[in-house]
Amino acid sequence: MKTRATNLRVRFPLFVFVSEVIIVALYAAFVTYDDQADAKFQTNQTIPMNNAVYRDYPVFTDIQVMIFLGFGCLLAFFRLYGFGGMVFNFLTATFAIQWAILVQGYFQFYYDGKIHLGVINLINAEFACAVVLISFGAVLGKTSPLQLLVMALLEVPVFAVTEWVVLNYLKINDAGGSILIHLFACYFGLGVTFVLHRPSLNEGHAKENSSYQSDILSVMGTLFLWVFWPSFNSALTFKGDDQHRAILHTFIGLSASTITAFALSTLLNKNGKITMADVQNVTLAGGVTVGASVDMMISPAAAYVLGMLGCTACMLGYKYLSPFLAKRCRIQDQCGIHNLHGLTGLISCAAGIWAILVADEEVYGPSLYEIFAHRAPVESDPQLEKLQMMIPGLKPGLGRTAQEQALFQVAAVFSAIGLAALGGLLTGFVLRLPYFASPSDDLCFDDRLYFEVPRDYDSPLQINNIMMEDTSA
Q1: How many angstroms separate the CA atoms of 74 and 471, rounded?
Q2: For residue 396, which phi and psi values (nearest 5 degrees)?
Q3: What are the tens digits of pLDDT across the range 26-51?
Q4: Torsion 257-191-95-6 (CA) sign
Q5: pTM greater than 0.90 (yes/no)
Q6: Considering the chain, what is the average pLDDT of its residues?
Q7: What's 293's DSSP letter?
Q8: Domain 15-38+52-223+320-445 carries which CATH code?
Q9: What is the distance between the alpha carbons of residues 448 and 160, in angstroms, rounded to a whole number?
Q10: Could you state, in order of their start, the residue ranges of all structural domains in the chain?
Q11: Radius of gyration of the chain from its Cα atoms, rounded to whole angstroms
């Protein structure tokens, strides 16, 4: 009966093929090339190196590595769910990017009845994909591949609507995606796992642990994410000194969180040893905590402090908050996304708000109104003409004060969390439908249910059992 209930032979291919037909039809009807990819705009006078691909493609490939290798390896830490962690990441990411091109195209790049596709659109779609993959971490091992695709199908539009509202109506600064990526993904994922709560997993699961090999693979994912995180944080900043600062701050924040993670892991372990889960996750906290202020003049010292603070919050969250949420609040956060993306995202947003409040022309010069574009004078203000003489191409702003911009940042935080949580709860109720083939409790965190596995796939478990028997004898 369980096999019949979770068998995907018909329903999974049916969903995929129907989705592909719909996506092809929508691409044919609405998607075309942007000016930088359209042959009609290529002439003998065009300098190839001026094409946007040379500016944007390196960042695109860096984020590709993070999504497919970084996330993929990182999620392979369960000893019997390595296939699921890596392959379902691959599957979900590919589908989410295809879908995000259409959905974000409608909300952000809709001109003349067409979606104009270029590399920058792919980068934006990758950010939407990263949101889905972070949320995926909350339900890792407890969902079928069909549930994951449906989750991506629903999450991407909710994210796109939230992004549209926050950027076009609240008009905020969020270069590193602390609000729109980390907080949104976290609370969407928590909303889903709250609805999909499994009481029998409150005290853990026999297969919910790692092996020597799976931990090494997961650390490889951490290293991929660590190395390429500066590209992620700086991708959408202004080219030049803003992007330069974003790279510096991200590296410093990551370095600080890494060193602090090793120290805290040893301190909080009763045997004074390093815990691999801390290396895999907590070391990355600095990349999140500098995100909201990554392109601002916060100083290298502040970036270092943010890395330390983020690491500390993330570490304490894993040790104390996650067990409490699982037992008392029905939130079984499998990968601890609330610690790495939620707590650190809130710290990052607080730092970004403070950086906005203290930003002035003495520190930034005229570029203050380029970095904080909504603080630029309105079109009728004589001050705008003077600024445009110093910064050619500067666009009119909204004339906001620092305090007004900070209040809009606060509003964006609460809006993103609220919309994400609501979207996650509604998505969770959809995923509970029997048709989507949720695995039974005893088959969670086990590749046998959805994969043809090699005969020795559970050899780490067998070796450990043999060693325990020898020790007890």
Answers
A1: 32
A2: -60, 145
A3: 999 999 998 888 888 876 566 777 78
A4: positive
A5: yes
A6: 91
A7: G
A8: 1.10.3430.10
A9: 35
A10: 15-38+52-223+320-445
A11: 23
